[in-house]
Design a protein that fits this description.
By secondary structure, the protein is an alpha+beta fold. It folds into two domains: 14-281, L-amino peptidase D-ALA esterase/amidase (4-Layer Sandwich), CATH 3.60.70.12; 289-407, ArgJ beta chain, C-terminal domain (Ubiquitin-like (UB roll), Roll). It is 31% helix and 26% strand. It has eleven helices and 14 strands. The strands form two sheets. Strands 1, 2, 3, 4, 5, 6, 7 and 8 form an eight-stranded mixed β-sheet that branches. Strands 12-11-10-13-9-14 form a six-stranded mixed β-sheet. A hairpin with a 2-residue loop joins strand 10 (347-350) and strand 11. The chain is globular, with a radius of gyration of 22 Å. The mean pLDDT is 94.
Length: 411
């Protein structure tokens, strides 16, 4: 069940806060988020595969023993400064960030996950942590999830939060209601190759760390890894998943492959997909969420290549901004995607309106197409007629505002 107004602290055993620490000039804008588990608990991470990765990514990987899962107590995120391309000084700053938070929370620095988002190439000052961490600790609460979600935003126009609850039939967990909740930021420089831009997800279900990691990767592959705004993978992408187990105290962890674990995975994927769709809809300068469905591909790789090429095509994205049902741009994109198919087998629909059959144009009402472009979500359905594989990728359109935002992002 979707929890209205839910987020990263909907799961039991977690509190959060968002404050203005001083990384940004505007004192009205939160720029430091803290999420803390009541006790050290299982944690799994997924991180950017960009070779130019940021210092906090390296440090968080180290804290998870280089295998991306382990035990952690807290996650700290600053916005405004990415601490990427900052050399050894940046590494020292990321480690000091973890130490300051650990000392304040009462745990080793090793149990603190760190993440940063913002401008690349700027050094991360430590002064804001000295004042911001105690302030965040003061405000830490079960109600602080929304403030934390606001604090991690960069060019996002609104915070992104989601949570669901679920029960299981297993008598071992009778009377228990479990929750998965999370927050994310992401609006530009988005085509993840691991998980997402910055996301923290929590659950109060009992899950072992290594199993938690496998579940996170599977969830990421059908959600965050299916989002693209502009085809750029960030240097700072970080997704963290914590499991407190508080909803079933003393109970054995969910066994992988059990109905209880299947219910957890379904809930986790629902939260991740919700957050992923929110990110695509809030792409920089976006006016529409765009869903690209590809069916009839020869294999999964071809389905993904075709969908991703369409989703990243500037010609397709600008046509959507202009409310132009120009299916030729979609055909051109799949034709250069590398996916194998015969053009005479292809069908394309735009918002349920058939525009191409057997690789040829289908007469359609431009007036009807214009009406359908008023919908907040534009759905493109492409059948390659080459097999049984399928996929869905989420993106957004390109408007003039995208250029405005990115033309002066740093200055």
């Amino acid at each position: 069940m979707l929890i209205e107004g839910g987020g990263v602290t909907s799961a039991k055993g977690f509190s959060a806060a968002g404050v203005h620490a001083g990384f940004r000039k505007n004192p009205e804008r939160f720029d430091f988020a803290l999420v803390v588990a009541d006790e050290p608990c299982a944690c799994a991470g997924a991180f950017t595969q960009n070779v130019f990765c940021a210092a906090p990514v390296v440090v968080s990987r180290e804290h998870l023993e280089g295998v991306s899962y382990g035990i952690a107590r807290a996650a700290a995120v600053n916005s405004g400064i990415a601490n990427a391309a900052t050399g050894e000084r940046g590494m020292e700053a990321a480690r000091e960030m973890a130490r300051i938070v650990g000392d304040a929370v009462g745990c080793p620095a090793q149990e603190v996950m760190v993440a940063s988002t913002g401008v690349i190439g700027q050094h991360l000052p430590l002064g804001p942590f000295e004042t911001g961490v105690p302030l965040a600790l003061e405000k830490l609460s079960r109600e602080g999830g929304h403030d934390a979600a606001c604090a991690i935003m960069t060019t996002d126009t609104h915070p992104k939060e989601a949570a669901v609850s679920f029960t299981v039939d297993d008598p071992v967990y009778a009377g228990c209601t479990f929750t998965v909740g999370g927050m994310a930021k992401g609006s530009g420089m988005i085509m993840p190759n691991m998980a997402t831009m910055i996301s923290i997800i929590t659950t109060d279900a009992p899950i072992q760390a290594n199993v938690l990691h496998d579940a996170l990767l599977r969830a990421a592959n059908v959600s965050f890894n299916k989002v693209t705004v502009d085809g750029d993978t960030s240097t700072n992408d970080t997704c963290l998943l914590f499991a407190s187990g508080v909803a079933a105290p003393g109970a054995a962890p969910f066994a992988e492959g059990s109905p209880a674990f299947a219910a957890f995975e379904e809930a986790l994927q629902a939260v991740c997909m919700n957050l992923a769709r929110q990110m695509a809809a809030d792409g920089e300068g976006a006016t529409r969420l765009v869903t690209v469905n590809v069916t009839g591909a020869a294999n999964d790789a071809d389905a993904d290549a075709a969908a991703r090429t369409v989703a990243n095509s500037p010609l397709v994205k600008t046509a959507i901004t202009g409310h132009d049902a120009n299916w030729g741009r979609i055909a051109g994109a799949i034709g250069r995607s590398g996916a194998r198919f015969n053009q005479e087998d292809v069908s394309i629909d735009i918002m349920g309106l058939p525009v191409c059959r057997d690789g040829m144009t289908v007469p359609f009402s431009e007036e009807e197409a214009l009406k359908r472009f008023e919908d907040p979500e534009i759905v493109l359905d492409i059948d390659l007629g080459a097999g049984d594989a399928k996929t869905t990728v989420w993106t957004c359109d390109f408007s003039h505002e995208y250029i405005t935002i990115n033309g002066d992002y740093r200055t």
